[in-house]
Amino acid sequence: MTDAAIALILAGLSAYLLFGGADFGAGLWHLVSRRRADKDVIEHAMGPLWEANHVWLIFVMVMTWTAFPPVFADVMSAHWVPLSLAALGIVARGSTFVFSKADPDQRWYPWLFGVSSVLTPYCLGSVAAVVATGGSSWLSPTGLYGGVLTTALCAYLAAVYLIWDARRLGDNDASLRFRGYALLSGAAVGLFALPGAAALGVRSPMIWLSALAGTVSLVLLLRRAYLSVRVTGGLAVVTVLWGAAEMSGLDLDGAAAQDAVLRAVFIALGVGALILVPSMTWLYVLFQRQPRSP
Amino acid sequence: MSTVALLTDAVAPHAGAASPADYMAARQQMAFTLGFHIVLASIGIGLPAITLLAEWRSLRTGDAVYAELARRWMKAAGVLFAVGAVSGTVLSFEMGTLWPGFMDKYGQVFGTSFALEGIAFFIEAIFMGVYLYGWDRLSPRAHFLTGVPVVIAGLLSAAFVLTVNSWMNQPRGFKLVDGEVTDVDPLAAMFNPATPVQAVHLILASLMVCGFIVASVYAVGLLRDRKAGRDDRYNRIGFAIPFSLGAVCAPLQVIVGDWAVRFVADNQPAKFAAMEGVEHTQAGQPFRFAVFEVPNALSLMLRFDAHATMRGMDSIPVDDRPPAEVVQTSFEIMITIGVLLLALATWWGFAWWRRHHSPGLPWRPWFLRVAATAGVLAAVAMEAGWTTTEVGRQPWIVYGVMRTEEAINPNPGLRYGLYIVLVVYAVLTAATISVLRRMRHTPPVAAPSDEPELEPAP
């Protein structure tokens, strides 16, 4: 059961990186891009109401403190500074996101949205790197490296996803620009990630899988296979997380909660999924439907 | 402050423990961020409920005013939901960054409650999206029905998260063997004896806070109308629906409040002694409130026996006493406001009952002026009640089992976290209010171009 809990936490983290990470990256492009058309695509592509992808982060936290309480306590207390900054970044992002929709004239909101989109993944990534390598501080070179790498991975993912989103909205110019961003950021992240992995002594086969998926993605981008690159690009990013998880070697068995607890949580999640999955699907279908005319 | 001095002594023996300043800052940060979240969460529970009431009336009568109110309330609910979601996320972080000792030892005991709360919250979010985006994509009846899960899931997520707090007051569902937690029973922890009373008390309070806050916006509008010589049905209905919700809950809350006091008197004598200002254990306790004192009344009220013996603070070991002044003052604030809101609710009920004889009765200016403050008052009462139960539990984070100072993050510098949080939340509050005000001034149905004018008649 401990293994199932670890698998669920890793799945939650992966989903957060793939979906939430892309949201962060979109915020970064929103900050640096000067074109209104790009910003329109980004605003359109993101969640409708609230940053729903943070639900993955909350899932990971609740699972960790329930299934592996000492791990949660150690990580959160040791890294309280970057994690508190990340929490405030989530506050700033989530609120400026809805505020700028409700009050489009206020210039501060988009700016804060962009800045917090960079700050949050940086802080989370630096903590992840420090935990994975058994380091001490987010201010160490490892922490710095992890933060920059995570932010760059998010930017790359967002650019890859936005190519197709722009095309669906019928903006081919923006689509081509995002393709350019994806090629540039993809190449840059690859060149940044491999030496880093070597320097940190990562021996995981995941790194090779990541490098392979990243290279395939670049080829797919050049050949304009925008849907398949979403899969390979995501794989290239998520394998970095899996490699780091493999490396961390936390003593999870000793930290696991009792079986009665894990059983209760699994039942709750199972019942919850029975309700959540159909309602999610319905929400998605409803989005695609055109409004009725009066 | 004597509390600080007391804590210094208690903390000092631990190597590398948090400094008293950091300890107080962590408690204040938790109190402040929770206090902020409570108001938003209350609105998140109540606003969908009053939106549905308005939409139900609109379906029944075909009256466009109800439909317009429902639409506006749900849009405001969308913005407030987003702020509530992020302020709730902060709390999950703080559980670990501020109270790792608590999470380390007991996270597994109450973790299931949080898992359930998370699921309920996610259901609420999904149906909120369905409801907001379904205005013109679903039949009016189906649309109304999609709002029902929002309300139910909102109530459930509040109840689930509250079970953690009630557990902190009445820890159950585990055994301590040589300081290690064993035999965890998540359901027994969740359904501890304090859960029913606390859940009902909190849910009624949140409906009151939301009802009175929304109503006060329209009370101000009605007073403005009167000055300008207008008569606006929109503002009157906008006032009547939420105020009636608050008014229905107010008398119920008095009954539940009585239940809560009796529960505390039986189960947490230190908190009770602090709330009622009982210093000495004696027979025939007088009832003290502010400057008044009625002989034997407390014993009579609580035990139905004017000579019953009741425990005072002197029966509690000095190290286990909560800061009594804070608890008593906040308890008295809550009671005072509760009585005032009950009076307002009574007047509203009377005026509504007599409205056919004298149509102006519910809209008397003096009443609207007082009603305009009811929202802030209800929120203050809620914070005061929260302070009563939280500070009254001190020095325990888990009553009788773990002290708050055992739970705190030992790393230095927590107080700087508090300062930053205060600044960020001040800006967040100002921005939220400014955005909501702006939304109020946009013309009706200020919506994307793809929306038709108003809800089509069924």
Automatic annotation (TrEMBL), chain A:
TM region positions: 6-32, 53-73, 79-99, 111-132, 144-164, 176-200, 206-222, 227-245, 265-287
InterPro entries cross-referenced by the UniProt entry: Cyt-d_oxidase_su2
Cell membrane listed as a keyword: yes
Membrane topology: Multi-pass membrane protein
GO MF term (any one): oxidoreductase activity, acting on diphenols and related substances as donors, oxygen as acceptor
Pfam families: Cyt_bd_oxida_II (PF02322)
Entries under PANTHER family matching the protein: CYTOCHROME BD2 SUBUNIT II
Name of the protein this chain belongs to: Cytochrome d ubiquinol oxidase subunit II
